[in-house]
Amino acid sequence: MMIDAIQRLGIDYHFKEEIEAVLQRQYMKAGTHGESIQDLYEVALRFRLLRQEGYHVPADVFNNFKNKEGKFKQNLSKDIKGLLGLYAASQLSIEGEDILEEAQRFSSTLLNAGLEHLDHHEATVVGHTLEHPHHKSLPRFMAKSFLKDFQGPNGWLTVLQELAKADFNMVQSIHQQELLQISKWWQDLGLAEELKFARDQPLKWHMWPMAVLPDPSLSEQRVELTKPISMIYIIDDIFDVHGTLDELTLFTEAVNRWDIAAFETLPNYMKICFKTLDDITNEISNKVYKEHGWDPVDSLRKTWMGLCNAFLVEAKWFASGHVPKAHEYLKNGVISSGVHVVLVHLFFLLGHGITRGNVDLVDDFPSTISSTAAILRLWDDLGSAKDENQDGHDGSYIGCYIKEHQGSSMENARQNVTYMISDLWKRLNKECLSQHPFSTSFTEGSLNIARMVPLMYSYDDNQSLPHLEEHMKSLLFEAFPL
């Protein structure tokens, strides 16, 4: 329970070795003696904590809570705490784990049904858990809510709460310094003046690295990662709202050759964009080479080429009025999501395990990256409103699906996308439990992009992002009184 609280408060980075030692003992204990504990909350919590750390705990530990007919026991309906734990644990399912699918349906049904019988505090905690299950949320973004929701007489909890408040304020000051650096960089760059049609949102863009890399010590990496992320948005706007198809074709050909001379015949805004892209790519490559002894320039250029080629495919579809098959749209959309660009940069900025084999793997769009990219693309397409101030030519998986499946309703199409996102999460969970050469920081970064997606793409009727804005305000400008 203490480990769970530490993680939810976003202060687990202070206790990494201690947490690892405790979980290792718990895993060995469960493997040696089997699962004889009859407390649902305790079993579910152990299962979730171990799986989160990459331990492949079998899901059959929950069979103890089923009756002779193989159904979850109905008397569990009174165990609200246990049901909350079961629901949270079910989010770590992988493909083929029917028992966890059943656990999610069982626990969510009973928790929703029991809401009206709970007091205000309990109802708030239950509602929060159902809407934001821990595994699919960002602890540092949710820490303030957890501090408000969590009540108890434990002396250690009071100590942790005080530590969490002080830590939150300390990390906030780090993020404020980062924001100053990003703001100065963006202003000095002058792109907002040169490219009036493009988005001008450095604060929003920096929220991605804040989510992806929560460790306070990775400040430099967060600042550097914001730069390619900003260029994904700018290039997206060039393709989506401004460039003609002829210009976009020439732009993509020039990026594929990575030749500044090839841009001489293009409009001035494209020259400025490519010059900035080239400068950022060279600066990050030089930094990685100095710190880690590997020049990533070929990998970084290759991922930008892939992004522009995918953007061009979508531009040609729109210009010709062609509606692709849903699977064809998604295959291209995974690349045009920009996730590969972000995670390739992240891999090199972290500098963990840079070998020829690992570089080839990360260049080749492994499942750790492609699953996250598909989640982003599908979530984006689920959005009911366009991005702020944008009137672009985006396609939509849902539109392609409805055209392909004549007679299918919007509701059916959206439900299908929701199922697909659920399956992609299972694939991501499996990747985290499988042997792979990537560091924990990298795989956690990929998961954190998937966790951040709902915040970035849940637009309201006013085409704004109220939940994201709320988190920005809280994380950057509202300190805890000490």
Automatic annotation (TrEMBL):
Gene source species = Vitis vinifera
For this protein, the record's SUPFAM superfamilies field holds: Terpenoid cyclases/Protein prenyltransferases, Terpenoid synthases
Domain Terpene synthase N-terminal, first and last residues per copy: 2-118
Q: What cofactor does this one take?
A: Mg(2+)
Lineage: superkingdom: Eukaryota
Q: Which UniProt keywords apply?
A: Lyase, Magnesium, Metal-binding
Could you state one GO biological process linked to this protein?
diterpenoid biosynthetic process
Name used for this protein in its record: (3S,6E)-nerolidol synthase 1
- Please list the residue ranges annotated as the Terpene synthase metal-binding domain: 188-426
List the GO molecular function terms.
Answer: magnesium ion binding; terpene synthase activity
- Any one Pfam family here would be Terpene_synth
> By its UniProt entry, which Gene3D superfamilies does this protein fall under?
Farnesyl Diphosphate Synthase (1.10.600.10), Terpene synthase, N-terminal domain (1.50.10.130)
Q: Does the keyword Transit peptide apply?
A: no
